[in-house]
Amino acid sequence: MILLRKALDRRTFLKGASAAIGLPVLDAMLPALKASQIPGQPVRAAWFYVPNGIDMRHWLAGDDGPLGTLPKVLEPFEKVKNDILILSNLTSNWGRPLLVGAGDHGRAVSSYMTGVQVQKLGGVDVKLGVSADQIAARAVGHLTKLPSVEMGLEEARQAGNCDNNYSCAYVYNMAWRSETQPLPPISDPRALFERLFGTDIVESPAAHARRLAMRRSILDLVSDDTHRLESNLGAVDRRKLDEYLSSVREIEKMVERSEKEGTIIDPGIEKPFGIPPTFDDYFRLMTDMLIVAFKADLTRIATLLIGREGSTRSYREIGIPDGHHPLTHHQGNMEMLNKVCEINCYHARLFAEFLVKMKATKEGDSNLLDQSMIVYGSGISDGNVHTHDQLPTMLAGRGGNFLNPGRHIAYQRETPVANLFATMLDRMDVHPEHIGDSTGRLKGVSLS
Asked: Does any domain span residue 64?
C-alpha cells in the first residue's frame, strides 16, 4: 500500500472533455488502514425482480439450517451456496386482490418493495408508497454520484407515458419515489452507460449527436487525468486502476457492437435498437455495468427488473418459443410446467453467474459480494393462480460481515417481505419506522 500525504477522495473522478469516470476503491484512498478495516466501507443493496412467479416445486430448499442438496432451480448457485440465504414463507400481502386495483401482475411488482396496496377507487389512484430502495437512496444517496440506479431488461411499450397509463406504470416499475411517481427502469444499454459514465455537462442535441458520431472513447478523453493520477499511485493501485478502466472500455465496446448488430431473435417482443441479440448477453452487459458502478462507488442502491410482470417474452436461446406469461397459466399441463421451470433455471444461471463475478471483484481485503445485500425474488409464487404468499426469496452476500448466509430459514406464514427490506436498510444505517406493511425485522439472517 502506498500512503499519500493526502488521501484520495472516495468520490474522485477522472475528467476530460465532457466526460467523467468514477474510480474504484484504491488503497491510496484508505491511508494507514486496509479497506476491510475501515468502518465506513460502503455496503451496497440491490433487488432483482423475476416476473410471473417461480415453479415452486423446484425452489423449496428443504428443512431449516445449512443448505444441502439444492433443488433444480437453485442448482446454479452451488458455487456460491455459502453466500446465499433462502427465506421461505414471506408474503407480499398488498399484491392480493383485496380491493379493485391494477390487476394481479401490476399489484405484484409495484407493491413488492413499497408494501402498500395499489388501489383505484372511483377512477382515482388512492395510494402506493415509497419503495425500500428509495427510502435508502434518500438517506445515503448523497454519498455517491447517483442516489440509485433503476434497470430493466424489457422496454416499456409506452415509454415516457407510463405516468399517465395505469397498467403501464405498475407492471413496469418496482421503484417508487413517491405515492404517484415511479422511477422507470433504464432498458437501453447505451442510456445506462451514459448515465453511469457519460457527460457531466448539459449538451445540446446537436452536440450530443456529434459526440456519438465521433465514437471517441471516454477513456481517451480522460487519458491525461489518468496519467497524472497513476504517477501518484503504487503498483497495486496502478493495477487496480488499469483493470477498472479496461472493464469500462470493454463495456463501451460491447454497447457499440450491440448497436451495430441490432438483430432481434424473439419476434413480437419490442426492443430498443442496440440491445444484444440474445437475452443472456443482454443480462450480462447490464449487470457488468452494475458491477463497475458498485466498484467505483457511483451508486450503492440498484434495482433490476428481469422482465415486466405479465411478460410474454419468449426464450428461443434455450429452445422455448412460447411466451413466458402464457406458459405460467399451465393448469397442470406438465409440458408447459417444464418449460416454466427451464425459464426459471435460465434466469437463475444468469443471476448465479453475476454473483460469481461480484465475488471475484476484489475490494480491499474483501469483495463486492461480501459487501452487498442482493435480493432475488418475485411478488408472485405460483404464476398459475397468482398467489402472493410463500414467495421465492433469496438474499445473497454478507452485507459487510452482517449476514450469516449458507442457510435456509422458514418464517411463520404471512411474514411480510417488507420485514426483510427493513432489516437490510438497518444495516445501511437507515432506520425507517416501517416500510409499507412491515411489522418488524427478520430474525436469524444476521450474525448477531
From this structure: yes
Residue 442 included in any domain: no
CB-based contacts of 242: which residues, under 8 Å, 6+ apart? Answer: none
Count how many domains the chain has. 1
Distance CA 334, CA 348 (A): 21
**378, three cell numbers:** 418475485
Instruction: Identify any residues that bridge with 394 across adjacent strands, giving them in sequence order.
Output: 86, 376
Between 54-63, 212-221, 239-248, the lowest mean confidence (pLDDT) is in 212-221
Chain-centre distance of CA 281, in angstroms? 16
CA–CA gap between residue 183 and residue 92 (Å, rounded): 20
| Cα–Cα distance measured from residue 131 to residue 137, given in angstroms and rounded to the nearest whole number | 10
Contact 381, 390 (CB under 8 A): yes
Contacts of 160 (CB under 8 A, 6+ apart): none
Q: What is the CATH number of the domain that holds 165?
A: 3.40.720
Task: Tell me the pLDDT band of 105, cut-offs 50, 70 and 90.
Answer: confident
CA dist 316 → 75, 313, 325 (Å):
22, 9, 15
116 lies in a domain?
Answer: yes
Residues, the chain, total?
448
Distance CA 190, CA 302 (A): 17
